[in-house]
Amino acid sequence: MGVAYDLLLEKLQSHGHKIHPNGRDRFRTTCPAHGGEDDNLSVAVGDQGVLTKCHSHDCPAEDIAKAVGLTMSDLFDAGGKAVYDYGGGHRVIRQRTRDGKKIFQHNKPAVTQLYRHPDSVPIEKSEVVVLVEGEKCVDAALHLGETCVTTWPGGAAGVEHVNLDPLIGKFVRIIADNDDPGLKAAAKLVARLSGVATVQGAWVVPEPKASVDDLWVRGGDLTELVGAQLPFEDVLEEPQEAPSRALSLRSLSTVSSKRTRFLWDKMIPQSAVCLAAGRGGTGKSSFLIWLAAQVNRGMLPGELHGKPAPVLYVSHEDSLDEVVTPRADANGVVREMFYSLGIDSKEVGGVTVPKLPEDLPLIRAAIAQTGAKLLIIDPITSTLSGGDNDKMADVRMVMDPLNAMAAELGVSVIGIAHFRKGGGAASDLISGSHAWRDAARAVMLFAKDEDTESTVMTLEKINSGEAGKSFRYRLDIVQQITDEGTFTDVARVVWEGDSNVSVAELINHESDKNRQGGLANDMLEWLRTFGGRAVPTKDFVEHFGNGDAKSAASVRQNLKRMVARGVIEQPAYGQYQAVMPTSDSPHAGGHVTPVTPVTLPQSVTSVTPVTPTPAGARVDTAFAVQVGVCTGCGGKLPQSLIDAGEVRHDVC
After folding, report:
1. Domains in the chain and their CATH numbers?
2. DSSP 3-state helix, strand, coil percentages of the chain (rounded to 5)?
3. Chain mean position to CA 71
4. 503-516 helix and 549-564 helix, angle to the nearest 10 degrees
5. In sequence order, what are the beta bridge partners of 597?
6. Which of 5, 440, 532, 598 is deepest in the core (most CB within 10 A)?
7. Positions of the chain with pLDDT lower than 50, given as ranges
């Protein structure tokens, strides 16, 4: 017996109602809600509670309970509710209140599973399986003598989403609810099980709108079931909802091969997602705005060379009017071809960044409206729609649709990512799941070269490109005139070309330097005390070594790195001299260079066009060339370059 069943039985008896057993775990009596002398109330043990049925007036269960001093919660065995566990954290919770029946589902998956009642023979161990609609009907069918009974969650509407694989090869009997939704659900089950299992038939309780639990509570048995007339034609005529996931097969004989196309030749693919990752302060955002300017003006070698194209820009980290627009002006962006992309959200009461994959149709619309060929997302992690940056599945939900859209529309997508703290392999420093790197078709890594005060960019990953190649650029702080007529300091990117130092080397050097207490800086400062005079290797080893081979090797390694970075020179084998900045060098004082204003075309800075005003920027200040002084870094030139008429170091 159940707790609720026993309690109701006791209350009915205490109120003078005569009990007439109607088989095991059920009885009939007079209904306390409307009175009368007939045994018009059926009571039976239910799953996690008690079942009641008034045959005369169909009195609500709450009225029956109230008439004997009980509440609706008392009709459940525990906690005033019934909980059904479907596995994997998915639970269905049912409870009745004065407002009616309430059903909750927790952790419901896209594809649900069949219910496993603790008293039922496991599906795997039975040749015959009975399918009913609802957990109460499972319990009722078991009480009526069936041995293996199951159901699915969500009622008639949920029949399309349940996994029926456990029924493969089984004999299946269906006991449907005798109403339109129940009969349609049974018809859909028969259709879904075709070729999967042998359906022996479908039956119903004869009374309209009755189900097998009604049969149980009124004292009936399975011999009363009649064959069901299933509405197969109605089910077939219903518009079928496309499944959320379906098999996709394609023979290579239907595929036309193509060459790889690049937004920037051998560096940035044209129709894919690229990742730009590095620590803060490396100028990633400034670099991508500079890149946008090259796209605006058709300056990049690649598919768009000579073909100016618009750019879409997504960012929530920088102010559009105080940071992005002045920075864009300083780096040569054409305002009328640069659009800030946002989503007008009623939920947040304003414009916010897109959430993927939900807002992908809106991004497609923006691309169609503007004709953009480059989409910049700063940072790309901001598009996670409530997902976890560290979970592969959540990251893939962003990256896979973006890659598909980029390939379909021929658009390059570049997302900015950040490095986590600590050391290790450079590509492993990208914050979050490794799926960010794995799903990107190209990965650019950025690191600051403190010795040259420039940023190194390494192509860590790219298909059919120059993977492993490194480049460098510097950020010149310039005074940019605003539309208000005032000046603001912004960074202007100056591309310097190839770099013989990679991001990985800089990251490792940074770790080494931290461990060594800034050995390279100490060596450089010591060398500068000699002016331009060369110092032999042995003097460095004697001054900075600890008398062992390991420290001597570290000293020699730092010397080689400083030569590679152009901060010291090697005029002869085993000899090193400092590259000394001069007071007349344009970089020596670290001063701000004013930019001469020029007039630009009218432009807009958002997806919704706005009226622009002229802005100035982008004229390089000419520097006087001094004999023997590098015009790039301001350091001393070796005599061999002076004799050759050069005015820069090779690395500059």
Report:
1. 1-80 (3.30.310), 108-235 (3.40.1360), 262-470 (3.40.50.300), 525-597+613-643 (1.10.10)
2. 30, 25, 45
3. 47
4. 140
5. none
6. 440
7. 98-100, 516-517, 583-625, 651
